[in-house]
Write a structure and sequence with these properties.
Layout: H1 11-15, H2 36-102, H3 108-127, E1 130-132, E2 145-151, E3 161-166, E4 169-171, E5 174-177, E6 179-184
Parallel strand pairs: 2-6
Antiparallel strand pairs: 1-4, 3-6, 4-5
Helix pairs in contact: 2-3
């Protein structure tokens, strides 16, 4: 028997690559010699993605914070407008109570009842931040006063408010209703 039949190598087999050790190995890509550049590129890509996500998180957080502040401001504005609207509707009632207090009446119990109700209403308005505008003696201010008439009045400066025909009110710094006034002219 020759060596060929006993499992020996033939000259053709000697030229063939040995595949017994490559059976489960991945194909050679050339990176096996130095895996550091591929790993560094992957790390750099992950860092960029992380930074992009972080920037996006910061933007979304800032947008949400702005939304929350805008919503709070809008809610506060709506509430203040509702309060101001209700108070503006109450002011003619306050005027009526003041006229009732100025009216001549012999019934002291009636007058005292009107005075108590007026005082309670005035206290309620004051607790809510409503304050009357002091007009008489002040210089005319078109932001606070509505001039109904101008009159030459001795002893008063030109532009001085000499009479208040209807009281004006402020809610904080907001004008609820201007004072209707008579203004002195030279």
């Amino acid at each position: 028997m020759n060596d060929h039949h006993r499992g020996g190598a033939t000259p053709a087999d000697a030229d063939a690559p040995d595949r017994s050790s490559d059976a489960g190995a991945p194909p050679d890509t050339g990176e096996a010699a130095n895996p550091a550049p591929a790993a560094d590129a992957r790390v750099a890509q992950l860092e960029r993605e992380r930074d992009e996500h972080y920037e996006r998180l910061l933007r979304v957080t800032a947008e949400f914070d702005n939304f929350r502040k805008r919503t709070d401001r809008d809610r506060r504005d709506v509430s203040e407008r509702a309060v101001a609207g209700l108070i503006e509707e109450l002011l003619p009632i306050v005027d009526d109570f003041e006229r009732a207090l100025e009216a001549d009446t012999a019934d002291s119990a009636y007058r005292e009842g009107v005075a108590i109700i007026h005082r309670q209403l005035a206290d309620l308005l004051q607790r809510r931040g409503v304050r009357p505008i002091d007009a008489v003696g002040a210089m005319f201010d078109p932001r606070l006063h509505q001039a109904v008439t101008y009159e030459s009045v001795p002893g008063h400066e030109d532009g001085e408010v000499v009479e208040e025909l209807r009281r004006g009110y402020l809610l904080g710094d907001r004008l609820l209703r201007p004072s209707m006034v008579k203004v002195a002219k030279a």
